[in-house]
Amino acid sequence: MFFGLLATALVAAGFAVRALAGVVQRRPEWVVVLVCVALAGALAYGRRRRRLSAARLARGATEVLEEATATALDALDVPPPAPSAAPSAGPTTAEPIPPAGDPRFLDHEALTPEEFEEAIAALCVRDGCSEVEVVGGAGDLGADVVALSPEGRRVVIQCKRYSDDNKVGSQDLQRFGGTCFTVHGADVALVVTTSDFTAPAEEYAEQCGIVCVNGAALLAWSDGLAPGPWAAGA
């Protein structure tokens, strides 16, 4: 069918060319008309192609513009990054540097018995006692630190640096109670320990008027949260 149609078209084109040739021989002015028609057709075809190209360019530009607009809208939807905190230009408060030997910054449980006596004497000096002496040692008869309180009373202190599981017993209090008032002339007798007291020891101390300072009370005293323990024996 294709070759038949092609042959028919070629035959028709041949007849058309013969007819045009005859017309051109009889009337030469038709040559100019045919040339003008051909040129007009070529120009029309060229303009149509240019219009199609311009339309394609316009469509392409429109698509690019739409993509750019969508990208900008997406960027607007993204929340801006949080600003980083600027370093404060204000003054900062430095931690206080404790003076050497300040009893507020001592770990009493880590001290030796001699160092513990020195630390208790330093607390007495800090809180206004005068004539503070460390007299502990062989033959001290139970007195480790002696001092005069701010009110002028004689304070006699026995220091017991014990571990938490070793409490001060009643025998310790009895030995100290036998000498603190009669031998050392105490107005206020104190027993200071890093641990605690047994119930019989506290009973005996209450009967004899001895002030017991356990680990918790010592911590409050050294931190300045409680007055000097000699005030309890006034």
Describe this structure in words.
Strands 1-2-3-4-5 form a five-stranded mixed β-sheet, with helices on both faces. α5 links the parallel β4 and β5 (210-213). The chain is of the alpha/beta class and 234 residues long. 49% of the residues lie in helices and 11% in strands. The protein has helices at residues 2-26, 29-77, 113-126, 170-177, 199-208, 215-222; strands spanning 130-134, 145-148, 154-160, 188-193, 210-213. The protein is built from six helices and five strands. It folds into two domains: 2-72, no CATH class; 103-233, Trna Endonuclease, Chain: A, domain 1, CATH 3.40.1350.10. The radius of gyration is 57 Å and the shape is rod-shaped.
Number of domains: 2
Number of strands: 5
Query: Which strand order spans the largest sheet, edge to edge or round the barrel?
Result: 1-2-3-4-5
Order of helices and strands: HHHEEEHEHEH
The geometry reads as: rod-shaped
Q: How far apart, in Å, are the first and last alpha carbons?
A: 136 Å
Radius of gyration: 57 Å
Average pLDDT: 78
Content of β-strand: 5-15%
- Total of DSSP H or I helical runs spanning 4+ residues: 6
Query: What is the second-level CATH architecture of the largest domain?
Result: 3-Layer(aba) Sandwich
Describe the sheet with the most strands: 5 strands, mixed
**CATH fold name of the largest domain:** Trna Endonuclease, Chain: A, domain 1
SS-based structural class?
alpha/beta
The top-level CATH class of the largest domain is Alpha Beta
